Amino acid sequence: HIATSCIINIEGLKKDVLQKEQYIRSLESRLSNPEFAKKAPHHIIEKEKQRLKAQKEELEKFKKNVSGLV
Predict the structure, then answer these.
(1) What pLDDT, on the 0 to 100 scale, is given for residue 15?
(2) Confidence of residue 6 (pLDDT cuts 50, 70, 90)
(3) d(Cα 29, Cα 27) in Å, to the nearest integer?
(4) Which carries the bigger pLDDT value, residue 31 or residue 67?
(5) What's the Cα-to-Cα distance from 1 to each of 4, 7, 11, 53, rounded to whole Å?
């Protein structure tokens, strides 16, 4: 019973990692888009850069914590 719930939790954690990685790619794509850079107000670009940095840091912490469980 415990093993089954661990497998389910690990699968859920893998899904969370994939979602975070996808979100990070989305932010990177948006920030590397010349049209976005040209049209978006400076404060929006900065906000997206901060969001990207925070997401990358969060993902690294998350992966580090997960690797201790597996």
Answers:
(1) 87
(2) low
(3) 5
(4) 31
(5) 5, 10, 16, 39
Assign 29 to helix, strand or coil.
Answer: helix
What token pair was written down for 27? 């932010």
CB-CB contact of 20 with 62 (8 Å): yes
Q: Token pair of 37, please?
A: 């850079």
CA distance linking residue 15 with residue 17, whole number of Å = 5
Return the DSSP state at 40.
Answer: S
The CA distance from 20 to 18, in Å, is: 5
Cα–Cα distances in angstroms (integers) from residue 6 to residues 2, 16, 46, in the given order: 6, 15, 39
Helix (H) / strand (E) containing 41: none
